[in-house]
Design goal:
alpha+beta; 11 strands; about 350 residues; 6-stranded mixed beta barrel; 4-stranded antiparallel sheet
């Protein structure tokens, strides 16, 4: 109780002293608040983008499939084609499902609004592979072909006021009239945050053009399977593509050089360049915080130098060194607390 009473007295005296130097108080609090707020905001961005678990069941089993062909004139990593998609889907013993997808922006037109929005163009097995279900309506079926769409909860709210009657209505979507059949949950935003609508699509064998590469593919591994095991199996399977689909001579040569690449799905959603940039920015704002702390410490040292006479008088009338140090710490606490509160407000705004 005595210690608490001493701290209460020191905090009261420290606050009175700080009020007598408002320039110092505002400068110290503002400097710390801006630096702490920047670090908090950047940390939140890094967590949301890179560290927060993906909103899919057993997300650690989801992987992005691509290829590499050392010695060829292709990029170091390249997307695959429908030949790989069908061959992997029908012959792999280590996957529980896979889908191909595309994305971009296209036009959505309703009765009173027209705009280009982010759209996804996945094969229908995306939903089962990712393990997601709509909150309203149903998922696409093979007989729907590409005449139906599933919309995001964000689009449902912003364009249709969460009216369930939107299910069954048809709108002009990406060049054709298509029917809305379902609404996905708010956390589902694959393959990007901008995606607000998904056009149904069923892959067909007659779409296969051997050697037509560049398509992203995502797979779900069976429990206990490692990425290395899957890459080995898929590399071996790719050797049988020329025999099944034919193709020009360089297609057979490419598949001899081909090696399957299996990456975590996050690497498909977030590019390595963006990931590196975010970590660099977080490091940069952390350095800014250190600099801000050093500057505020210098301000306290200058303030203490200017108060040598006051501190000497306190010591002369009986204040111990511990009491004087405690008074200095009380001032630091009274600067740090409002700076922290202001930093939380700033990070919430940004």
């Amino acid at each position: 109780a005595q210690v608490v009473a001493q701290w209460r007295t020191d905090l009261r005296h420290a606050w009175r002293g700080l009020l007598h130097t408002p320039g110092f108080l505002v400068t110290a609090v503002g400097t710390l608040a801006l630096a702490i707020g920047a670090v908090a905001a950047m940390t939140n961005v890094v967590y949301k983008v890179l560290l927060e678990p993906l909103p899919f069941p057993d997300a650690e089993r989801l992987v992005a499939l691509s290829g590499t062909a050392p010695g060829s004139d292709l990029p170091e990593r390249f997307g695959l084609g429908f030949d790989f998609y069908f061959h992997y889907k029908e012959n792999s013993k280590l996957i529980d499902g896979l889908f191909a997808f595309g994305g971009g922006t296209s036009t959505l037109r309703t009765e009173n609004r027209v705009e280009r929005i982010g759209m996804g163009f996945p094969t229908n097995d995306m939903y089962a592979t990712l393990g997601v279900r709509p909150i309203v309506g149903r998922l696409p079926r093979p007989e729907d072909a590409d005449r139906v769409v599933v919309i995001s909860e964000r689009l449902w709210e912003q364009w249709f006021g969460r009216d369930s009657a939107v299910i069954g209505r048809s709108y002009f979507v990406s060049g054709e009239m298509r029917q809305v059949i379902g609404v996905m949950p708010a956390e589902f935003r694959f393959p990007s945050e901008e995606t607000m609508l998904w056009v149904a699509g069923e892959a067909r064998l007659d779409q296969v053009q051997p050697g037509n590469l560049g398509m992203p593919i995502v797979a779900r591994m069976k429990p206990g399977v490692t990425r290395e095991q899957l890459a080995t199996e898929l590399t071996q399977l790719s050797k049988g593509l020329p025999q099944r689909f034919g193709g020009p001579p360089n297609y057979a040569r490419l598949n001899e050089q081909h090696r399957a690449v299996v990456d975590p799905i996050l690497d498909r959603i977030i590019s390595p360049t963006l990931s590196t940039s975010l970590w660099v920015l977080l490091g940069a704002v952390a350095v800014v915080l250190l600099i801000a702390c050093a500057n505020v410490a210098n301000l306290f040292m200058v303030r203490a130098e200017g108060r040598r006479r006051d501190l000497a008088v306190r010591h002369a009338i009986g204040a111990s060194r511990a009491q004087i140090v405690r008074l200095q710490l009380a001032e630091a606490v009274l600067v740090a607390l409002p700076a922290g509160v202001l930093a939380v407000v700033l990070s919430a705004i940004t």
